[in-house]
């Protein structure tokens, strides 16, 4: 990536479907994690901009055509959004990589095309949605309706910006909601591309606003009395603050928060199949993923073999320019995020874990917020590096004694988002999967599928995104009591 990359500058905000002058003069500077230089600039939305966006959304929902269209009519418009994202997916992927340093091969597949797929599966679910049904009641017939929840505040993170946006925007739009999208200040540029696509697709006035801003403006948005639902992806701490703010208005919430997912290797696991998948699941997006397999559980009988093979695989990962297709590990999104990983590496050493690979900043990369892919061995699950979400390329290898011990360790976490098990048979692996308290789990594979519900137990969040459950999160259920038929 060259230092001469031109700065992408936007001077307006997308409020209610119109490009509008911001209320304030402050801007957000987007800094490349590779060059540490500015690559973009957008207006910083203020509470006044939030008021305008919520008012436009309120008008669109309360009096506009969008929630009153048939589901088929909304599907036509959202299909054009999906097609527009597909047509520009390479540009979208490059924007994400430019902002957060995600390796370009991952950005194409997991940032851009996965977002397109999420729109596609939401469209399929919507096509089969029944918005009204009659049921027999005890005292007479019932008409059960499913209606849009209203105005949605969608607050999304920097690590997988487009996929997390798609998981909220697609079902919300198809349900008939109006949306105020607040992208992360680290990655606002791809949200502008999305706004362009939605504008071209013909969303009615007021249905979508895009407001890049920091936490202060976000806090104002999620506590706004004009918002009916908040959909958030981010940290546990921020999720708790949002939940507290939403409580004042009894605003509905969906919270997709952190993870400390465990991968269990059983004694009869096929290591040739498992280890490449585990390395990918642990270090994808430079470890900046809520579903990252940051705890790898190895049986004591095979611990030394697994440790040696994992160490070799992690050491072989190429660290460098995220626009190079051969790069496996790009920079972390900010200098603060890099320092967080380095601090946890120091903590791991102090706690007595054995450093098997990595542990510092690559010597050949003097510019950029890079951290070597790091593997700790001899980790006790009670250590901070095993209990706290690091959100960087730092992975723990933990020894267990028997199957019951492996299940105990996997569940000994404040989180419950994802995980995987590798077993000699799929049946055995599935039996383990049924015992682990996580929202998603993989057996003899490492998958994330936007057709299925996604979310977590415990501190990993509340509610589900994607699949039929994801669409249901944007619907309210109403019962209408119909008069009983006259008796003969």
Automatic annotation (TrEMBL):
Family, per entry? Belongs to the aldehyde dehydrogenase family.
Q: Which UniProt keywords apply?
A: Oxidoreductase
The organism named in the record is Streptomyces yaizuensis
Catalytic residues identified in the record: 256
What name does UniProt use for this protein?
Answer: aldehyde dehydrogenase (NAD(+))
Record-annotated Aldehyde dehydrogenase domain positions: 19-480
Q: Please name the PANTHER family in this protein's record.
A: ALDEHYDE DEHYDROGENASE, ALDEHYDE DEHYDROGENASE-RELATED
Q: Which InterPro entries match?
A: Ald_DH/histidinol_DH (IPR016161), Ald_DH_C (IPR016163), Ald_DH_CS_CYS (IPR016160), Ald_DH_CS_GLU (IPR029510), Ald_DH_N (IPR016162), Aldehyde_DH_dom (IPR015590)
EC number(s) on file: 1.2.1.3
Listed under catalytic activity are: an aldehyde + NAD(+) + H2O = a carboxylate + NADH + 2 H(+)
Q: Which domain of life is it from?
A: Bacteria
Q: Which Pfam family is one of this chain's hits?
A: Aldedh
Q: Does the keyword Iron-sulfur apply?
A: no
């Amino acid at each position: 990536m060259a230092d001469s990359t031109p700065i992408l500058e936007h001077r307006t905000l997308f409020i209610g479907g119109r490009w509008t002058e911001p209320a304030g003069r402050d801007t957000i500077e987007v800094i490349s994690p590779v060059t540490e230089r500015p690559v973009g600039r957008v207006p910083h939305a203020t509470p006044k901009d939030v008021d305008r966006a919520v008012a436009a959304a309120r008008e669109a929902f309360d009096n506009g055509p969008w929630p009153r269209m048939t589901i088929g009519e909304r599907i036509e418009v959202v299909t054009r959004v999906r097609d527009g994202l597909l047509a520009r997916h390479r540009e979208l992927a490059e924007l994400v990589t430019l902002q957060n340093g995600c390796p370009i091969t991952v950005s194409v597949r997991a940032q851009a095309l996965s977002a397109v797929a999420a729109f596609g599966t939401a469209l399929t679910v919507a096509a089969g949605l029944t918005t009204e049904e009659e049921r027999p009641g005890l005292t007479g017939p019932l008409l059960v309706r499913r209606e849009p929840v209203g105005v949605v505040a969608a607050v999304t993170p920097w690590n997988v910006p487009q996929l997390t946006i798609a998981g909220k925007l697609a079902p919300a739009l198809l349900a008939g909601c109006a949306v105020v999208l607040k992208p992360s200040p680290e990655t606002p540029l791809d949200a502008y591309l999305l706004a362009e696509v939605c504008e071209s697709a013909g969303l009615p006035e007021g249905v979508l606003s895009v407001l890049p801003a920091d936490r202060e403006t976000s806090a104002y948005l999620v506590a706004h009395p004009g918002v009916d639902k908040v959909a958030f992806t981010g940290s546990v701490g921020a999720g708790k603050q949002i939940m507290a703010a939403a409580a004042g208005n009894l605003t509905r919430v969906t919270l997709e928060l952190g993870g400390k997912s465990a991968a269990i290797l059983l004694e009869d696991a096929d290591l040739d199949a498992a280890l490449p998948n585990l390395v990918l699941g642990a270090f994808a997006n430079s470890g900046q993923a809520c579903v990252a397999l940051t705890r790898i559980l190895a049986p004591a009988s095979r611990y030394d073999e697994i440790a040696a093979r994992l160490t070799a695989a992690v050491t072989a990962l190429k660290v460098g320019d995220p626009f190079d297709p051969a790069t496996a590990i790009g920079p972390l999104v900010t200098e603060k995020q890099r320092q967080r990983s380095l601090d946890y590496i120091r903590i791991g050493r102090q706690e007595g874990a054995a450093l098997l690979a990595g542990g510092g900043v690559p010597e050949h990369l003097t510019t950029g917020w890079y951290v070597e892919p790091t593997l700790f061995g001899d980790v006790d699950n009670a250590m901070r590096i095993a209990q706290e979400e690091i959100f960087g390329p730092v992975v723990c290898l933990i020894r267990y004694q028997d199957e019951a011990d492996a299940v105990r360790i996997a569940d000994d976490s404040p989180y419950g988002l994802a995980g995987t098990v590798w077993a000699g048979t799929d049946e055995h692996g599935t039996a383990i999967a049924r015992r682990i308290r996580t929202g998603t789990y993989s057996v003899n594979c490492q998958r994330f599928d936007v057709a299925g519900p996604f979310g977590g137990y415990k501190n990993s969040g509340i509610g589900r995104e994607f699949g039929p459950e994801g669409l249901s999160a944007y619907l309210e259920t109403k019962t209408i009591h119909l008069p009983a038929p006259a008796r003969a």
